[in-house]
Design goal:
- The chain is of the alpha+beta class.
- It folds into three domains: 182 residues, Regulatory protein AraC (Jelly Rolls); 49 residues, Homeodomain-like (Arc Repressor Mutant, subunit A), CATH 1.10.10; 65 residues, Arc Repressor Mutant, subunit A (Orthogonal Bundle), CATH 1.10.10.
- It contains 13 helices and ten strands.
- It has a six-stranded antiparallel sheet with strand order 1-2-9-4-7-10. It has a four-stranded antiparallel sheet with strand order 3-8-5-6.
- A hairpin with a 5-residue loop joins strand 1 and strand 2.
- Helix 2 packs across helix 4 and helix 6 packs across helix 8.
């Protein structure tokens, strides 16, 4: 089995390399499927991961969710079951052996459809689980992933076969090591399902004051229960979650516009420019002006890539 896994990993790496003629994140002709290629180690990338399945065919990456570190490579896969602010960095890549990976984004409804059409057994009463996890890749999951990627060599098959193959990949994930945790996002009544709307509200209204009473009422939970479940799912409190979203957006604005740091602070919801500067330093390591100057100098005047600097790749 180990030999077959290596053979399929190599085929997938070759396929990704053929379909990526430059570094970065490339949207493929298969809906919600992206290929990623980097020929060098990357800056730490700050972004919100969407619900997605990620697999590295070649190279190595580390991802931080709050204070938790996840490292994964060709023997593993990563799943983000919700929208989560994370830090990701490619830590193994070179011109000769580039980092090659894929990302398949999915929705709650797609998970629910697979649950409805299969014999998967779980309960909405399961304890809430972390929404980011790394599992060991198996032959059945890798085989399904490879067949989905192979459609790019036969584009005429994509409209008919892609939905079937995507459904199979999700089926394999649900029957894998973290299937129960993944299923919770689609089971109405589960703590994870109920916390999801609160997460989406914070992201949507990140520049507004945080109203925990409204979010907990939306989740049909008491305030203390909401706090506990939110931290179990995201590894951070609601205020820490909002802070990461605000600071990510502030950095994006500072990099893409000629804006004053104090003005940006107010745009993302801070009432105090000094507090914004302190928290920016804690997250990015230096004050806004110095941080943006360093990033721009590191790229030697080349066009700034949203994926490389603002957010990093998603896998």
């Amino acid at each position: 089995m180990a030999e077959e896994l290596k053979k399929q990993q190599l085929e997938l790496a070759n396929l990704i390399e053929r379909h990526t003629d430059h570094d970065g994140v490339i949207e493929t002709a298969v809906p919600s499927l992206f290929f990623i290629r980097y020929s060098n180690l990357t800056e730490p990338g700050y972004r919100v991961y969407k619900p997605s399945y990620c697999f590295i065919a070649q190279g190595l990456k580390e991802v931080w969710l709050a204070q938790e570190r996840f490292e994964y490579g060709p023997a593993d896969y990563l799943i983000s079951s919700m929208n989560l602010p994370v830090i990701g960095q490619v830590i193994r890549a070179s011109n000769d052996v580039p980092y090659l990976s894929l990302k398949l984004e999915f929705t709650q409804n797609q998970i629910l459809e697979v649950l409805s059409d299969s014999d998967f057994q779980t309960s909405a009463k399961e304890n809430p689980k972390r929404a980011l996890f790394v599992g060991q890749i198996g032959l059945s999951l890798l085989d399904a992933t490879l067949r989905l990627a192979r459609l790019l060599d036969n584009p005429g098959d994509i409209p008919y076969l892609a939905p079937i193959y995507i459904k199979e990949v999700l089926y394999r994930l649900l029957h894998g090591q973290y299937g129960v945790a993944l299923a919770q996002i689609a089971l109405e009544g589960s703590s994870t399902f109920r916390i999801r709307e609160g997460i989406d509200q914070i992201i949507k209204n990140f520049d507004k004051p945080l109203r925990i009473d409204e979010l907990s009422e939306m989740a049909n939970m008491g305030i203390s229960t909401f706090h506990r479940v939110f931290k179990e799912v995201t590894a951070m409190s609601p205020i820490q979650f909002q802070k990461q979203i605000r600071l990510q957006e502030a950095r994006r604005i500072l990099l893409s516009e000629s804006a004053d740091a104090a003005d940006v602070a107010f745009r993302v919801g801070y009432e105090s420019a000094s507090q914004f500067s302190r928290e920016y330093v804690r997250m990015f390591g230096s004050p806004p002006k110095a941080d943006i100057k360093r990033l721009k100098e590191n790229y030697d005047g080349r066009p700034l890539s949203t994926e490389q600097i603002f957010t990093g790749s998603n896998v």
